[in-house]
Structures are given as C-alpha cells and as structure tokens.
Amino acid sequence: MEDRLQALKTRLGEIQDLNRAAALLGWDQQTYMPPGGAAARAEQLATLQKTAHNWFITDEIGELIEALRADGADWDYDSDEASIVRVVARDYEKARKVPSELVAEFARVSALAFEAWTKAREQADFSMFQPHLEKIVDLNVRLAEALGYEDRLYDPLLDQFEPEMKTAKVTAIFDDLKAELLPLVEAISERIDAVDDSVLHLDYDEQKQWDLGVEIIKNFGFDFTRGRQDKSVHPFTTAFSISDVRLTTRIDTHYLPAALFGSLHECGHGLYEQGVSLSLDRSSLDDGTSLGIHESQSRLWENLVGRSKEFWSHYFPRLQNVFPSQLANVDVEGFYRAINRVEPSFIRVEADEVTYNLHILLRFELENDMLEGKVKIADLPDAWNEKMETYLGILPPDDAQGVLQDIHWSGGMLGYFPTYSLGNLISVQIFDQVKADIPSLADQIAAGKFDELLNWLRENVYQHGRKYTPAELVKRVTGTDLTAANYITYIRSKFSDIYDL
Ligand code: ZN
User: Fold this and answer.
1) CA distances, 248 to each of 25, 72, 144 (Å)
2) According to the model, what pLDDT value does residue 317 have?
3) Which of 74, 216, 226, 228 sits CB 3.0–4.6 Å from 243 for a disulfide?
4) How far is the CA of 355 from the centre of ligand 1 (A)?
C-alpha cells in the first residue's frame, strides 16, 4: 500500500513538474518575452500540455487509483492521502473522457480565434470573430457531450472551473442577486453625482505607485522570499510551486486605483497559493480548489479589506504623504467615497462592486443561450446590447466596448465567467465568519495589522489546497451552504450609506 501511494505520488509529481514548467512559460510570455518568441512559445506550451495530459491518463495511474481506493477505504477523509486519492480520481475520470483529438482541436481553433479576436476588437467588427466563435461554441458542445451531463449542457463546462457546481444552482443564486441589484443600480444612477472621484484621475508617479503597492502587500503578508511581482498588460497571478508565487500588476499614471487595487487583488490570489500546506507540494492538490474560491480571496483582500473605511483610516495619511499635492484637497471620507463610486459602465474589468455582477449575469445567460442554440452567433451583438440596456441602462457604442471586450471566448473557454460572481459572494460569506471569530478585526485593520486575519485564512482555507470541493469548503468554513444573502446585506448597507439611500 505504501509502495502504491509512493508510486502515485511520484507520477503526480512528475506531471505537476510539467504543468508548473508550462506555467513558467506562460508567465514569461505575458511579462518579458519579445513578440518574436510567440510562435515557438505556442508550440512549447502545446507540447508540455499534451505530454502532461498523456502522462496522466495512462492505465498505470488508473490502476494505482483503483487499488488505493480499496486500500484507503478507512483512511481519514481529511488526511492528505485520502484527499489525494479522492481528488485525483475525480480529475482522472474527467481527463479520460476527453479524446486527445478534441484537446488538440481546442488548441488549434483557439490559437486562430485569439488572433481573429484581437484584430476584430481593434476594428470593433464582430463579423471578423463570428466564424471562430461558432467553431468554439461547437467544440464546447462536443466537450460537454464527451464529459457527460444530466441537466444542462453548461454543467460540465462550469464544472471545469468550479467543481461540482451546477447551472441550476448558479441560476437560483443569480436570480436573488438580480432582484436586489437592479433596483439598487437604478436608485444609485439617479444620484450619480453624489460621489466625485476626480481626485483618482490626476497624475500619479509610476515608481511611487509601485512602491506603495509593494509596501501594502508586504504588510498583508505576501512573502517576497517566496514570490515576486512584475508588470504585465493584463494583471494575473501564477505559481511555479507553493514557494514561488508570481504576481503581476499594471500601472496607469492617470488612474490611481488600477495598480493599487490591482496589486491588492492579485496579492489575495498569491496569499492563497503561498498558504497551501507544504505537505501537498507536487501532489496536484497544491493549488486553489476552484476559480470561485480563488476569486473570493482576491476580492476579500481587494474589496472587503482594501476598500473599507478602516483600511483607509490607517493608509490614507500614508498615501497623502506619498502624493501630497494630488491629495491636498480631499479627506479620508472623500477618498473612501471616491474609490467606491458606482456608475454603470461598458467594461467589466473596470466595473465597481455594485454593477460588476450584472456584467457576469449577462455573460452567463448568453453563454447558455449560445450553447443551447437559443441565440444565433450572428445575432450575439444585438443580444448583448439588449441585455446591457436592461441590466445597466446603457448601450455600448460599438462591439469593442460590447460583445468583443473579454478574452475568454477567444481562448475557447465557456463556463468560466460565473466564478467571478461566485467569488464575490463567497468572499463576503467567509469574511462574515472571520468577523464573528475575530471581534477586534476592524480595529486591527484600522491599525494596519493583518496577521491574525491572514492566519485565520491560512488555517481555515489556504492550507487545504484542493482537498475539498468549493461547496465542502464553504460549508466547512462558514457552517452554511453558498448563498447570496451575506453579499446582498453587505452591498445594501455599504452603498446605502455612501449614496444616502
Ligand atoms: Zn482575480
């Protein structure tokens, strides 16, 4: 039994080495690689990914898992050993269902689709991307059928990013959210001038922004001996091991929140990766358990900590010290209101806490309609604009600011978007539990102290890596199932106060 467990761990370690090497190539591609490297890099990544897939789906690994399931029938559910066998068995079953031709076709189609999407967005012309998106939808239907589903085509696609989550559950949660958010956005839209954020759009020195961001994330507890931060066009976080976690950020010298909150956000992802138990190193469980849980941590540090009054009661004097002339005429209350300004806008990634989830609702509904043939791809821009008007009351001036804005579909990914909203909901649900367990949390944040918060999150969330499904983890940590209720209470209270509703 020990031999079999060791044999499985050895194989998983080798496969994880390939995955982490691919992550390094991907990180380099987005940070330092010169444009001339693109073609060779695509081949290198495809080779590594294909090799990792092929090494994983062998009969040998299947037999080891089968035998270990029998050996470990009475192992403790929470132990590393039982968790590795349980989680890897689930990954293995899924991976075996996907034919390698389909994996290869996804890679080919999305490489071309990405190029077409880039050009289509530049020229704001959806028709250039349309034939590629038709192929991508078709491939996703084939993938869903290969993976199998009982209820909705969307289920197995969503499951790739949020294991065990179902479309029906997301729909129910999003309905609750919609019922609350639509009237709230309308009420705020009538008072849009109540908050002035012009102070955020002044000239802010690049190096000073960088240094302040590093200072704050160090204080959050990001360990720079086990990670680093670089610049990229689209900020992201990736890890080459638990002890080597890479954050990226981008700096806009005319918009302070971009780098500031971008760094705090990515740091949240990074703290999760650095907090996984070293006993899970190279096991394939040494990662976040789902995109939704991952996003809950980036949002927790970015929004629930970083956009709170307590946080700025500590950091505003420091910020004023760094940018004395820009911030001479604003006080902490005015700054707090500015960074929390709500305004319906076209671009998801720039959306505030209130309108953000409506962007996700729109994509979730359209993805389902595309897969189930309820909307023709040719009609997608109109369908998009119609929903923008219904949910946000604004009409995109062109496709670049509408249907073409996100990269995900060009990468072949459908089923990904809901994880952003699930992350927002889970962040508040978990944070409410932290507040109950640490009554002095607000005072600690106001004093610039984050160690007790970080330790709580490591203990309850981060150390487990992929041991538990998102649903198991939420239940374990908060005692209840995933719900929109905590988020709704949070949003209502925070923004009624800011907008005097
Ligand atoms: Zn994120």
Assistant:
1) 15, 41, 33
2) 97
3) 226
4) 17
124: CA distance to ligand 1 center in Å?
A: 26
DSSP string, 30-73: HHT--GGGHHHHHHHHHHHHHHHHHHHT-HHHHHHHHHHHHHTT
Q: Do 128 and 223 fall within a single domain?
A: no
Q: Is 295 a catalytic residue?
A: no
The whole-number pLDDT of residue 402 equals 97
Is residue 74 domain-shared with residue 126, that is, in the same domain?
A: yes
Same domain, 173 and 132: no
Secondary structure (3-state) at 311: helix
- Kindly state whether residues 393 and 297 are assigned to the same domain: yes
Ligand 1 centroid to 148 CA: how many Å? 29
pLDDT for position 256: 97
Assigned token pair, 48? 């590594």
The pLDDT, as a whole number, for residue 12 is 97
- Residue 477's pLDDT is what? 98
The domain of 410 spans 167-499
Tokens encoding 438:
């640490």
269 CA distance to ligand 1 centroid (A)?
Answer: 7
User: Do 94 and 190 lie in a common domain?
Assistant: no
Mean pLDDT by 10 residues, the chain (501 residues): 91 97 92 88 87 94 96 94 97 92 83 88 96 97 97 97 97 96 94 95 98 98 98 93 97 96 97 98 96 98 98 98 97 98 93 96 98 98 97 96 94 96 98 98 98 98 98 98 97 97 92
Q: What is the 3-state secondary structure (H, E, C) of 336-363?
A: HHHHCCCCCCCCHHHCCCCCHHHHHHHH
Q: Yes or no: say if 328 and 158 are a contact pair by the CB < 8 Å rule.
A: no
Cα gap 184→501, rounded to integer Å: 9
What does the alpha-carbon distance between residue 239 and residue 30 come to, in Å, rounded to a whole number? Answer: 14
172 and 135 in one domain? no
The type of residue at 162 is E
Does residue 116 share a domain with residue 229? no
Residue 444 belongs to some domain of the structure: yes
The two beta strands, 227-231 and 244-249, are parallel
420 Cα–ligand 1 center, Å: 8
Integer Cα distance of 302 and 267 in angstroms: 8
How far is Cα 75 from Cα 82, in angstroms, rounded to an integer? Answer: 6
Residues 81, 162, 180, 266: which is the catalytic one?
A: 266
- What's the pLDDT score for residue 106? 84
DSSP 173-211: HHHHHHHHHHHHHHHHHTTGGGS--GGGGS---HHHHHH
Per the structure, the count of domains in the chain is 2
Number of residues that make up the chain: 501
What is the pLDDT, as a whole number, of residue 104? Answer: 78
Q: How far is CA 433 from the centre of its chain?
A: 21
Give the separation between CA 464 and CA 276, rounded to whole angstroms.
6
* Model pLDDT, residue 35: 81
Shared-domain flag, residues 135 and 250: no
